[in-house]
Amino acid sequence: MHSVKEKVSNAAAAGKEHVDILKAKAEEKAEKAYARTREEKTIAEEVRKAKEAEAKMELHQAKARHAAEKLESKQAHLGGLVGPHHHGPTVGGQGHHVNPVGTTVPTTGTVAPAYPLGGYPPSHGHI
Fold this sequence. Notes:
- By secondary structure, this protein is mostly helical.
- The protein is built from two helices and no strands.
- α1 packs antiparallel against α2 (38-77).
- The chain is elongated, with a radius of gyration of 27 Å.
C-alpha cells in the first residue's frame, strides 16, 4: 500500500513539474514579446531554461523525499529492527558476530589479527 502512495505522490509531483514548465514557457513568450533587442530575448530564453531546470530538480527532490518516507514507514512497521547496524533477527537464534579488526576477543582474551595478513578479510560466506 505504501508503494501506491509513493507512486501517486510521484505522479502528483510530475504533474506539478509539467505545470511549472508550461508557466516558464508562457512567461518566456511574454518576455520575448516585450523584448526590443536580441539580448533581451536571449535573457528571456535563459530564464526559462533555469526555471525548467529548477522544476526538474524539485521533481527529483520530491521523488527522493517520497522514497525516504516509504523507507521510514517500512522501518517503523518492523519496529526499528532494520537499521545500519542491525539486520533483523537471525534464523535459529545463532547470530553471526564478527569482531572488529584489532579488538580483543572476549572469550579468549587474545587480540584479533589486523588485516591484511597476506590477503583479504573473510568473505562472510558470499561468493
